[in-house]
Task: inverse folding
């Protein structure tokens, strides 16, 4: 119900329409969805996870475990949104969750009727037989009943922003402690960032009363915010939750930008990624529920939450509320209720006496205070209508039943230590407050071992207003003076973990600890009885603290019950680990803007747009895109590849080879260096010549290959594979910087500075001659030579190298002239039958020639000797990278699998990845193998299937027929030479 | 999310700007080494829970390799120094001794640094 | 000790569950045992279990420095598969997967093995070739897998976007009998079974030293006093190097942090396990409804169980690209575990330079799925002093010979 007066956050002149499930209702600007629903008399907002019990809000903020809804519709529907944090806007639509067919009538609540047979961990003891039933029967049923909101059905249409920031002091929490900390720090000149998760500043103080600087706390809050806002180096954000403090002061903040408006232009949320010099954790504290029978009935709330609903939003479940407590703070709720005109029939206080100023004030206001009293049960279907009182220390004999619409419970407070604990800060048990507080002697530490988090205010255990604000100011600047503040003195609380303390098992099975996951006192006791005695075991066995509130309400109560069951002290039982995030963070915000086409950077060669305009089908190669082939209208990819191969072999093909790595190695010791990096001798290569080179890692395995050209006496150009350019450059620098650091060598990765075009085929020379400018005759530029000059007026370096077996020139020109050269070649080649070809034709042609491809013939376990590339290893060199590795027994084994060619007997193509079947089975019962296919293609040139493969002692077994198995069939193939086409190499050397 | 100082360009930067490179100060074993020595060079790792000397490259900065002394149990960084060193320099060893005791410093100290 | 069944639940339900016995006993350590296993994670407990079940050795203590199952057993993404490329890997992971099939019945403890199927997406031509090769190898190894096309991928996992502009799904390696299990239950089930055989599971008992005389192990020093043994199994995952150091040898191991995370629970939307190695991420949905997500490891040595946030971002970016519906879900919790990586990323089940000491470690990012098979092979090694066929190739001395078991050949990340 909505109260006639009051409500510091609402605007009674601005009604807002919203829909919950099937009903349209009206709330007020400033409402949360939860307050608006309570205002409309709706307490039932959700169903629990396991037993599907009816649930109302128990909190008023981010710790809420019950009032979870699906907000929005269609692609913008978001499951598991806390109604207590959802700001109302015009047209808001929310749906209840985890119920069928409706929230009020949920058939799955049948679980509740048999809950005595569904205790913690029952599923570990059942559903064991019959075996198939778990997957087909039990698990699907459990899965359907579990989960909360529905899965989103469509892609998220919203955008998410990410920003980086830096500051000296980051303050998490804009209550009085956080504001005092930010003010004190900012006044020293520090760069300060202050984040508050709620839409408004001040935290609890404006609700809880007391005075700051002689006046209402709200006045001081407004002045503090104004002062901070006027300072140049201060950043203030509301609706921004500090989600995580990571190592070395890396802080994540999620800011809600448009949710409270119901959407809008711009990003929906922003993820701040901040390096903070230090963090002040002023996130406050969470009130603890009391574990009494029936404490989960809708209408039972935290005392502070009911106080918030009444003071902030002027709503309450009904005209009468009972308060049950073990401390003085809850009396503030009783007084606030009375001020708002709500009757408080009784305050049940578990303590034997309550004589502090707050209880005195309650009595003075005419409220009955029953000390030594607890609650034996609640009454009501769907919502509480009465409570049963009992002796707090007894077994639960009901002394009195009191009608009421709400129960405000308080079991004390737990500091929100999450941001302290996430990066490794330790806790200690504060006996007086019965709470874990940060242990200042064991803070989380930064890069230099320095403390990086300070806790302030209630988060440090300073629960009373004067202590709270003073601790905030100190955290901001140890020398700062805190504003004077006053609040009522409070008598010590009495730790109460089970109410009534002598309750039997039947009552303990009705005392909820974790509301969302339906974990009760009896479950924790069962875990202890069964030996799940570590707090982590108990958590995992019972699911205590694993709900979406991550134990904010349940953890301390749960481990206190565990400690009692184990007869241990609470600090000996300890806590579970606090893991990020503090509050769940939207995955879209963590993923950021990098989606779709900009998911990863796209590397484009200078010719990329030409390929795109000419129908290229792309193949991703690292971050590059390379044309796979250029299909014509009505042409399949396979047909296009065959056409490109045949045309290149018969006439003229052009390949964009720009992605090939191009690394210049220069210096007086460059030759010596390359002799170590490559297996072959590069120092002996004459200027003007090219040589094929292999690179191995220290294990001896082949990692890259390419043609090396000697440009000058002290300069070499090393070509690498497309994927290898960056890796090999780093590899070279690694050795130069960390092993041979006194060698005088410089390296430079020129890959993106040059466009490189392979001009391939019998007419290649004619095409270059048509461009003019260089003598590319056999005499002037023989095979495996290179020359520099101009082609069609473009400065060019021309390499006579061939990866296809055809007459071939690779022409490198400055990247910005690449398109020009390509288009000139296309024009000049027109009469010669020129066609571009893609990576697949390249692969087919190199396989026809028996040339290996890194990544196909190699997989990180293959050495050059396996591939018949011993000729590219210099036997005279005393050392090269990989030489020692290749001397090890397994790599020198004559039984190794070695490269051969394979031809099927029927001319078909062997399936990719096929293995050669050996004789019998190995010790583990696996079919023996004696080799595998590494490359397999249809060869348009030979008009049949060809393959390369690694076969045990392969080159010694020419002519043998092997059986290959893959894709459920077997193919027979003969071992042949790996060079299928032009074995004499006549075509390339003309 | 570590913060490291590149000893070459002096920049204090995010972990994402650097690339890790494993244990530092391994001596290369070439063709003359035994199988055991070669295995130790490539595979046997100290992997301490405590002070670790390790390689990093300023991958998205100056491109230089450097070395760091860092605690693997707390992520505290005792210092970074050039890759062209036989062992941690005195300032880093002093810092380790100061923070983790003389024993810890002695375990990772390998004689005088060499910047030849 | 009582047998678990629905009848037992009903019986106990009628007396408010006050009669359940301890799942495992917590005895004081004796002065010596026939065999000691250090590490009461899944692998250590499975080792002890099969020592008793297969080899009749029940005078066994399992020592745990913290709480049972508290290491990587309790912090992984629970994927079970055996679609490995290399013969030794396929053999032990398939043995393990097969044992998982009947583990609930064998242990009388529901470990919730759910063979809902695992698919590894191929998003480049290179990956297509790699997974075709794996499928061909698996067929000969007796592992049931197949390479499926994009349409079938979409049928099996309708929430997937197979037409992403950067990495469209070209197919997948599909193992229908792979799936997930309940990680804690595996440790608890083995612990209960070990305890029923009379073995001692001793928690909060850290090993502080290893006594070696004449090249032979004699026992261990612990925070609860010295304990003698002739056979010592070190099964401590991320902390293997520390234990090896106590015994005076080094391992080819580095300890790195691997992170995982879960979303808030939602209603069922995904019935299979999906792994995407090109973009680095994998995901399944737990029985509770959480999306369980993992990615790659940090690159630097780390014992803190706290990883670097950029890996979380990278993983989620990749998965939002593959599963656009993820974007509006919320990350509920993230955590890290310390994984031990060997020089070839394959495990060690091995004799050591010290007589009587055996190691089982190096499972890296993929240990959970291996628990039963690993325990089976390790128990055989400890019982006989020599490895059986399952463990033979996983010797720590393979690195000296250059005999690697390299799985990175087919896949970038493992799990």
Result:
């Amino acid at each position: 119900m909505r109260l006639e007066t009051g409500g510091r956050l609402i605007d009674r002149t601005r009604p807002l329409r919203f829909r919950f499930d099937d009903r349209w209702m009206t709330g007020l600007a400033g409402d949360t969805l939860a307050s608006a629903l309570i205002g409309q008399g709706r307490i039932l907002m959700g169903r629990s996870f396991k037993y599907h019990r009816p649930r109302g809000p128990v909190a008023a903020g981010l710790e809420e475990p019950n009032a979870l809804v699906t907000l929005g519709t269609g692609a913008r529907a978001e499951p598991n949104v806390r109604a207590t944090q959802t700001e109302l806007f015009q047209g808001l639509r929310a749906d209840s969750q985890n119920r069928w067919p409706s929230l009020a009538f949920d058939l799955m609540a049948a679980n509740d009727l048999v809950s005595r047979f569904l205790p913690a961990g029952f599923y570990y003891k059942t559903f064991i037989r019959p075996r198939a039933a778990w997957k087909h029967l039990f698990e699907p049923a459990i899965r359907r009943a579990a989960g909360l909101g529905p899965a989103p059905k469509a892609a998220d249409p919203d955008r998410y922003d990410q920003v980086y920031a830096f500051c000296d002091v980051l303050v998490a929490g804009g209550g009085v402690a956080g504001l005092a900390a930010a003010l004190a720090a900012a006044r020293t000149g520090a760069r300060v960032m202050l984040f508050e998760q709620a839409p408004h500043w001040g935290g609890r103080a404006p609700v809880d009363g007391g005075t700051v600087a002689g006046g209402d706390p709200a006045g001081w809050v407004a002045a503090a915010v104004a002062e901070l806002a006027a300072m140049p180096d201060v950043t203030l954000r509301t609706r921004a939750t500090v989600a995580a403090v990571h190592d070395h002061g890396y802080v994540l903040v999620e800011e809600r930008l448009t949710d409270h408006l119901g959407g809008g232009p711009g990003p929906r949320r922003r993820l701040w990624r901040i390096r903070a010099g230090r963090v002040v954790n002023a996130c406050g504290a969470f009130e603890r529920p009391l574990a009494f029978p029936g404490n989960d009935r809708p209408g039972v709330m935290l005392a502070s939450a009911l106080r918030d609903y009444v003071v902030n939003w002027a709503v309450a479940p009904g005209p009468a509320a009972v308060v049950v407590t073990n401390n003085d703070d809850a009396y503030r709720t009783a007084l606030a209720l009375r001020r708002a005109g709500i009757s408080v029939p009784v305050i049940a206080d578990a303590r034997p006496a309550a004589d502090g100023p707050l209880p005195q004030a309650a009595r003075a206001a005419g409220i009955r205070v029953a000390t030594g009293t607890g609650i034996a049960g609640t009454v009501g279907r769907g919502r509480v209508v009465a409570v049963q009182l009992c002796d707090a220390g007894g077994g639960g004999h009901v002394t009195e039943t009191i009608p009421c619409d709400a129960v405000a419970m308080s079991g004390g407070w737990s500091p929100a230590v999450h941001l302290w604990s996430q990066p490794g800060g330790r806790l200690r048990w504060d006996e007086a407050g019965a709470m874990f507080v940060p242990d200042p002697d064991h803070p989380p530490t930064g890069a230099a071992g320095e403390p990086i988090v300070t806790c302030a205010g209630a988060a440090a255990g300073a629960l009373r207003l004067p202590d709270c604000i003073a601790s905030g100011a100190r955290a901001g600047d140890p020398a700062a003076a805190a504003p004077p503040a006053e609040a009522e003195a409070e008598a010590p609380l009495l730790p109460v973990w089970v109410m009534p303390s002598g309750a039997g098992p039947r009552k303990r099975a009705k005392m909820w600890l974790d509301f969302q996951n339906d974990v009760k006192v009896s479950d924790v006791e069962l875990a202890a009885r069964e030996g799940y005695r570590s707090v982590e075991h108990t958590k995992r066995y019972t699911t205590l603290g694993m709900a979406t509130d991550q134990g904010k309400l349940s953890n301390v109560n749960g481990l206190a019950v565990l400690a009692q069951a184990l007869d241990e002290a609470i600090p000996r039982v300890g806590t579970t680990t606090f893991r990020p995030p503090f509050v769940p963070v939207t995955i879209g915000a963590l993923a950021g803007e990098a989606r779709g086409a900009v998911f990863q950077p796209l590397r484009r060669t200078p010719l990329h747009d030409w390929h795109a305009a000419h129908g290229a089908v792309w193949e991703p190669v690292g971050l590059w895109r390379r044309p796979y082939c250029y299909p014509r209208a009505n042409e399949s990819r396979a047909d296009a590849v065959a056409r490109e191969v045949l045309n290149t072999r018969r006439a003229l093909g052009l390949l964009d080879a720009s992605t090939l790595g191009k690394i210049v190695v220069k210096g007086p010791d460059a030759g010596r260096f390359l002799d170590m990096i490559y297996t072959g001798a590069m120092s002996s290569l004459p200027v003007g010549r090219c040589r094929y080179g292999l690179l191995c890692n220290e294990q001896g395995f082949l990692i890259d290959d390419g043609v090396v050209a000697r440009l000058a006496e002290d300069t070499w150009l090393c070509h690498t594979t497309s994927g290898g350019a960056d890796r090999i450059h780093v590899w070279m620098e690694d050795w130069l910087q960390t092993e041979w650091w006194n060698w005088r060598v410089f390296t430079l990765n020129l890959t993106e500075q040059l466009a490189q075009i392979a001009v391939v085929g019998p007419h290649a020379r004619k095409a270059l001659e048509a461009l003019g400018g260089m003598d590319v005759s056999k005499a002037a530029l023989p095979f495996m030579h290179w020359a520099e000059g101009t082609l069609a007026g473009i400065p060019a370096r021309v390499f006579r190298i061939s990866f296809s077996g055809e007459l071939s020139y690779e022409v490198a020109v400055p990247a910005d002239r690449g398109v020009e050269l390509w288009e000139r070649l296309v024009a000049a080649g027109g009469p010669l039958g020129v066609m571009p070809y893609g990576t697949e034709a390249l692969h087919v042609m190199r396989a026809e020639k028996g040339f290996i491809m890194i990544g196909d013939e190699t997989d990180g376990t293959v050495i050059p000797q396996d591939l018949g590339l011993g000729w590219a290893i210099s036997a005279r060199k005393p050392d090269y990278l990989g030489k020692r590795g290749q001397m090890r027994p397994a790599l020198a084994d004559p039984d190794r699998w070695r490269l051969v060619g394979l031809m099927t007997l029927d001319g078909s193509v062997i399936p990719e990845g096929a293995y050669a079947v050996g004789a019998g089975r190995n010790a583990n019962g696996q079919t023996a193998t004696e080799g595998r296919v590494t490359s397999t293609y249809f060869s348009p040139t030979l008009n049949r299937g060809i393959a390369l493969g690694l076969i045990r002692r392969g080159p010694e077994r020419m002519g043998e027929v092997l059986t290959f198995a893959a894709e459920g069939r077997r193919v027979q193939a003969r071992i042949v030479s790996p060079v299928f086409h032009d074995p004499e190499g006549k075509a390339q050397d003309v | 999310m570590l913060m490291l100082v590149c000893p070459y360009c002096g920049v204090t930067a995010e972990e994402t700007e650097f690339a890790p490179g494993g244990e530092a100060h391994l001596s290369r074993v070439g063709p003359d080494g035994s199988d055991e020595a070669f295995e130790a060079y490539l595979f046997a790792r100290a992997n301490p829970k405590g002070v670790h000397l390790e390689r990093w490259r300023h991958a998205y900065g100056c491109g230089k390799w450097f070395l760091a002394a860092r605690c693997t149990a707390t992520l505290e960084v005792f210092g970074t120094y050039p890759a062209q060193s036989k062992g941690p320099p005195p300032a880093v060893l002093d810092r380790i001794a100061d923070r983790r005791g003389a024993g810890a410093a002695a375990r990772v100290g390998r004689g005088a640094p060499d910047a030849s | 000790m009582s047998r678990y069944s629905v009848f037992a639940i009903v019986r106990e339900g009628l007396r408010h569950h006050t009669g359940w016995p301890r799942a495992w006993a917590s005895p004081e350590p004796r002065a010596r045992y026939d065999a000691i296993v250090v590490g009461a994670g899944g692998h250590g407990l499975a080792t002890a279990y099969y020592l008793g079940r297969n080899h009749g050795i029940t005078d066994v203590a399992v020592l745990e420095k913290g709480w049972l199952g508290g290491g990587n057993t309790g912090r992984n993404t629970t994927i079970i598969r055996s679609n490995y490329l290399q013969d030794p890997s396929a053999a032990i992971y398939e043995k393990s997967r097969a044992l998982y099939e009947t583990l609930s019945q064998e242990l009388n403890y529901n470990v919730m093995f759910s063979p809902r199927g695992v698919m590894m997406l191929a998003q480049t031509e290179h990956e297509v070739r790699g997974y075709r090769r794996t499928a061909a190898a698996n067929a000969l190894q007796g592992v049931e897998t197949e390479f499926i096309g994009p349409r079938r991928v979409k049928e099996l996992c309708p929430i997937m976007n197979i037409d992403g502009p950067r990495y469209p799904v070209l197919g997948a390696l599909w193992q229908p009998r792979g799936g997930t299990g309940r990680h804690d239950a595996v440790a608890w089930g083995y612990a209960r079974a070990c305890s029923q055989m009379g073995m001692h599971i001793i928690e909060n008992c850290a090993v502080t030293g290893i006594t070696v005389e004449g090249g032979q192990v004699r026992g261990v020093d612990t925070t609860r006093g010295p304990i003698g043994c002739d056979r010592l199994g070190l099964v401590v995952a991320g902390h293997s190097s520390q234990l090896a150091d106590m015994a005076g040898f080094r391992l080819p191991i580095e300890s790195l942090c691997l992170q995982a995370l879960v979303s808030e629970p939602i209603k069922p939307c995904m019935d299979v396990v999906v792994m995407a190695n090109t973009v680095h991420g994998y995901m399944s949905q737990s029985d509770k409804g959480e999306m369980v997500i993992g990615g790659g490891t940090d690159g630097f040595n780390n014992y803190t169980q706290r990883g670097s946030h950029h890996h979380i971002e990278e993983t989620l970016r990749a998965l939002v690209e593959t599963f656009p519906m993820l974007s509006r879900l919320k990350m509920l919790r993230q955590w890290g575990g310390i994984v031990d990586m060997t020089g070839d990323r394959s495990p060690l089940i091995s004799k050591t330079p010290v007589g009587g000491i055996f190691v089982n470690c190096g499972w890296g990012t993929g240990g959970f799925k291996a628990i039963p098979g690993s325990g089976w092979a390790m128990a055989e090694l400890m019982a006989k002093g020599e490895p059986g066929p399952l463990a033979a190739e996983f010797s720590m001395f393979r690195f000296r010979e250059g005999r690697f078991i390299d799985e990175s050949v087919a896949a970038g990340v493992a799990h």
